[in-house]
Design a protein that fits this description.
Elements lengths: L9 H13 L3 H14 L4 H8 L3 H14 L18 H11 L15 H12 L5 H10 L17 H16 L5 E12 L25 E9 L5 E6 L4 H14 L5 E6 L8 H8 L6 E5 L10 H13 L7 H25 L1
Parallel strand pairs: 1-4, 4-5
Antiparallel strand pairs: 1-2, 2-3
Helix pairs in contact: 1-2, 2-3, 2-4, 3-4, 5-6, 11-12
């Protein structure tokens, strides 16, 4: 547009157009497009609307182009000196975020951006603005999430790692005539688990709870080779529920010489009733392999239960336990159906 940017020759316009097309930096490409739009006679207001920038940005880019030509479109922050958010500073920030504020003698147990700015300054001498801290957190891939409560394993680290390696080697060298499953129990509550969900601005979704809670329990076993789930249901989480699953495994794998069961140290797995079951003729095919205490991440069935909660029990609207359990069974059957379809396709 006459008076805002100088009229471009056909050759110069072609060069700017080629630069805009090949440019991979979004902001620089926008500056090229601003100049090209203005040169085509499009006004500042319409240019700003088309490119989704402010009118002040259009005028600023035009002024820089008038003063310095194409060189004025390049980001001039490189003249500000060394970048504060260099690799070393970001590595230090990563280390800070991965720890607790109390490790740096703060009383507060959770990080805020303001606290991170101060801590980073003390650790590296680099002072940045809170808004810059938001960019830095995005650069290191940090996110706000919900911590997972855990209980530390009582075993020493070498003993824990040795046991886990033994179980991994067992699975890797499993003979064809033997089976290995990961076992665990899960609670199903009529009062729904509350979890995150998408909502529109100004809305907070509500989850109606029945009030009087009811519970059902599943004992499940995930096949180590196929990923298929075998489960039984009960109104109590006790040894009888676990024994019911063991008999289900014996019937499900009639030709297996040995059925290896990897499981946690929950008390219902070690009762006299279980010992009697394992001593029977069919029970002798079962071998229980206990994980180190408080190591749920090494039990593969835990992922299956997390998916169950995410797909069925979290924020559910079932009015009674029967309808909730129908949804639970449907989800687990669909899980097995997808696995069988994948195996058939392969």
């Amino acid at each position: 547009m006459e008076g805002i940017v100088p009229k471009l020759s056909r050759r110069d316009k072609r060069c700017l157009l080629d630069q805009a097309r090949s440019c991979r930096e979004a902001k620089l490409k926008t500056r090229y497009l601003i100049v090209l739009n203005l040169d085509d006679g499009i006004g500042p207001t319409e240019t700003a609307r088309r490119l989704k920038v402010s009118r002040s940005t259009v005028y600023r880019v035009a002024a820089r182009f008038r003063e310095c030509g194409e060189a004025g479109l390049v980001d001039r922050r490189e003249e500000n000196g060394d970048r504060k958010l260099d690799a070393q500073t970001l590595a230090a920030l990563h280390e800070i975020v991965a720890s607790s504020p109390q490790d740096y003698r703060w009383r507060r147990p959770t990080w805020t951006r303001e606290l991170l700015v101060i801590t980073l300054s003390r650790k590296t001498g680099v002072k940045i603005h809170v808004s810059t801290m938001s960019k830095a957190l995005a650069m290191i891939g940090a996110r706000r999430g919900q911590p997972k409560p855990v209980v530390e394993c009582r075993w020493s680290e070498p003993a824990k790692n040795k046991r886990i390696r033994e179980l991994e080697q067992l699975e890797e060298s499993l003979p064809d005539d033997e089976v290995l499953v990961h076992e665990d129990e899960v609670d199903i509550h009529l009062n729904p688990k509350i979890g995150p969900d998408w909502m529109v601005r100004g809305q907070q979704k509500q989850v109606v709870t029945p009030g009087q809670n009811q519970k059902r329990y599943l004992a499940g076993a995930r096949d180590g080779r196929t990923g298929e789930l075998i489960w039984v249901e009960g109104e109590k989480k006790n040894s009888l529920l676990f024994i019911l699953l063991l008999w289900e495994l014996v019937q499900r794998y009639p030709n297996a010489k040995v059925i290896h069961v990897i499981l946690d140290n929950y008390c219902i797995h070690k009762t006299q009733q279980v010992a009697v079951t394992l001593a029977t003729n069919q029970g002798q095919r079962l071998r229980l392999h206990f994980l180190p205490p408080y190591c749920p991440d090494h039990n593969r069935i835990e992922r299956t239960w997390r998916d169950l909660h995410a797909a069925v029990t979290r924020n559910h609207t079932c009015p009674d336990m029967n309808s909730l359990m129908r949804n639970v069974r449907h989800h687990l059957m669909q899980h097995n159906k997808r696995i069988n379809q994948t195996r058939t396709a392969a």
